[in-house]
Amino acid sequence: MKYRQGLYTKPTSQAIEQAYEEGYDAVFTSPSREVAKKAKELGILYAPVIWVPKANDVKQGVVNAWNETALFAFNNSGCIMNPQLIQNTIQTIEKAIIETGAEAIIIDALRYPSPHDQKWLFTCFCKHCQQHMKTLGINSKELAEKIRQATKNLHQYPHLKPEQYHALQTLTYIKQKAVETALIQIKEHTQKLGTELWAAIFPPSIAWLVGEIIKPLTGLEISIDYKEIRKKGTGPR
Ligand SMILES: [Zn+2]
Questions:
Q1: CATH code of residue 17
Q2: At what angle do helices 127-135 and 162-193 cross, to 10 degrees?
Q3: Inside any domain, residue 129
Q4: How far is the CA of 167 from the centre of ligand 1 (A)?
Q5: Of 50, 106, 159, 231, whose CB is crowded by the most CB atoms within 10 A?
Q6: Ligand 1 centre distance from Cα of residue 124 (Å)
């Protein structure tokens, strides 16, 4: 499935027509039957975008090293290690494919909070992530303590004590393993549905920090024009 230039835009017929007039031959929006119909009429590609960590209950949020819980991004995103969230994503994907007939689905925000979320960059210590750490042989309580210490000296980075530097690296590794685990589950289902799976990811300079493990995800990556997103004001952050 090939396209020349795609646009991440609003899920309305008007936005799709505008994209077509501007020369785009692919559009990406939240799942919409109306958009699918319009894209088909215009002969351009449409791939629905699924916001993976979607949550509206703070109990499904991410827990930072200070044991504070929050929903991140647009105050609508929880922890991807919560099995309920991944289950919801799989159901949303199935529904989107039925409603739009799309041959490809884009998963968005399969990740942890970014530096934009400040203290929540130092996540996640929710019960699901604690369990995940246990399977990796990592003591979550000790790690949280070392992270708290490391953040006191963060302005000196990378000139930190080895154990604090290592703690930050370990937390990043845990996030990458969590993204990988969730990705495997989602991929299993989309393969059964015969749908191509793509992913919207951060640029490599920051992707690693939020758990977006580049090797498996780049195989799915779509090319997003970040300048265009900023102009339209609809992109991920
Ligand atoms: Zn978690």
A1: 3.20.20.80
A2: 100
A3: yes
A4: 17
A5: 50
A6: 4
